[in-house]
């Protein structure tokens, strides 16, 4: 597989987050030639338009990574049946200033997934984020269905994904997403 550059974002800042662990598991199941760099959101301040210039360094670093990536993988928990504030805050920053949205976000395919210790995974968080991604013109790829990890505490042991069926599903999803990105690249090169 040709070189694919991905940016991964965890919607959780918690140490030992199941979603960060899920993102790390995706890294281990990428096809050859694909690379996933994990963006850090823990130094993003709360969005304040008065602080846009100069842009906070942490925001600028993630924007730079997004400019040069082929696609984005987001692993998010669910808080109160919605997306976590940290994820929304990150995209509020990343979409600023508006004149840079096209080069940073527009057209960047997104692969959404999430994990939760509860029985519903992150289905509501994933659904709640769809309108934001539509507004940012970031198409969500879900040709192989959503990955919603329920009862995450049973699927991870000592920071490692131990559920073999989920490992296979992650590998299939990562391979499918990378194939999709290569197809988009080929179409754009025509």
Offer a concise description of the structure:
The chain is of the alpha/beta class. It has helices at 18-28, 57-67, 85-94, 101-104, 123-135, 152-155, 164-189, and strands at residues 4-10, 34-39, 71-75, 110-115, 147-149, 156-157, 160-161.
Give an account of the 3D structure.
The chain has 190 residues and is of the alpha/beta class. It has one domain: Rossmann fold, CATH 3.40.50.360. The protein contains seven helices and seven strands, in the order βαβαβααβαβαββα.
* Biggest β-sheet: strands ordered side by side in the sheet: 2-1-3-4-5
CATH C-level label: Alpha Beta
Instruction: Classify the beta-strand content into a percent band.
Output: 15-25%
The rough form would be described as globular
CATH superfamily heading: Flavodoxin domain
The end-to-end span amounts to 19 Å
Low-confidence stretches: none
Rg over CA atoms, rounded to whole Å, is 16 Å
The main pleated sheet reads as:
5 strands, parallel
Q: What order do the SSEs take from the amino end to the carboxyl end, as H and E?
A: EHEHEHHEHEHEEH
CATH topology: Rossmann fold
The overall average pLDDT, rounded, is 94
Q: How much helix, percentage-wise, in residues? A: 40-55%
Helix and strand content put the structural class at alpha/beta
Shape-level CATH architecture: 3-Layer(aba) Sandwich
Q: What count of structural domains?
A: 1
Instruction: State the helix count.
Output: 7
Task: Give me the count of strands.
Answer: 7
């Amino acid at each position: 597989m040709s070189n694919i550059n991905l940016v991964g974002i965890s919607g959780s800042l918690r140490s030992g987050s199941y979603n960060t662990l899920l993102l790390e598991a995706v890294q281990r199941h990428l096809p050859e030639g694909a690379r996933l760099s994990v963006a850090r959101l823990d130094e993003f301040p709360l969005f304040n338009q008065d602080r846009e210039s100069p842009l906070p360094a942490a925001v600028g670093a993630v924007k730079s990574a997004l400019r040069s990536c082929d696609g984005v993988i987001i692993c998010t928990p669910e808080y109160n049946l919605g997306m976590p504030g940290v994820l929304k805050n990150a995209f509020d920053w990343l979409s600023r200033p508006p004149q840079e949205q096209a080069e940073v976000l527009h057209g960047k395919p997104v692969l959404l997934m999430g994990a939760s210790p509860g029985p519903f995974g992150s289905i509501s968080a994933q659904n709640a984020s769809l309108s934001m991604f539509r507004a940012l013109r970031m198409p969500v790829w879900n040709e192989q269905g959503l990955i919603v990890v329920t009862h995450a505490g049973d699927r991870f042991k000592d920071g490692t994904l131990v559920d073999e069926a989920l490992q296979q599903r992650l590998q299939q999803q990562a391979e499918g997403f990378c194939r999709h990105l290569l197809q988009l690249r080929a179409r754009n090169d025509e």
